[in-house]
Design a protein that fits this description.
- The two termini are about 25 Å apart.
- The protein has seven helices and twelve strands.
- The strands form three sheets. It has a four-stranded mixed sheet. A four-stranded antiparallel sheet has the order 5-10-11-12, with no helix packed on it.
- The protein is of the alpha/beta class.
- It has two domains: about 90 residues, Roll (Urease, subunit C, domain 1), CATH 2.30.40; about 80 residues, no CATH class.
Amino acid sequence: MLTLHVAEATPGTAVLIDGAVIAAVGPYEELAAAHPGARVRRWPGILTGGLLNPFAPELLEAAYHPDPREAAEFGTEPITGERAREVFRTDPARRGASARRGVQRLLAHGTVAVAGELRERAALDAVRRAGLAVGRRPDRLPGTPALSPVPLVLLPGPTVGGPARFAVFDVPDRAALVRLGARTCVATVIGGRLVFRAR
């Protein structure tokens, strides 16, 4: 089934998906007219190629992402340093669930690719299951490990014949995205599937 994604601030770069592949990129009106049977998904903001987060090992192996049911004990934000190491020492089985929650948080920040050498099976499996691309880590890392690192590493826009992998941010333009960060993500698509959608 064909799906046409269009964002309000970038109607000239609507994306038509056929399964896991990008079938067309162009003005929304033209694509909609050429494919009247396509399901249409409308989004606020801008449609981009998504983000590369270069801190995969730091976020998925060295940090503990608490379960919401653990908020009273750990809070809701990722735990790092000695406290995270203690959590994993106390219960090694928490690594898998933490990595899966970490990946979900990355997807909620428009991440479609990660970089950094992952060594633990739990993190590798979580990345693979989500369909995140694995890229090369930049020689000089931007900022510090964060779900929305500063500066953002924006990936090239969607291309015809390429994988259906992109993100939508509720901002008027790329400058606002850089200023406001990845927390403005409203949708992430990987492999043609909507893997994150803001409520």
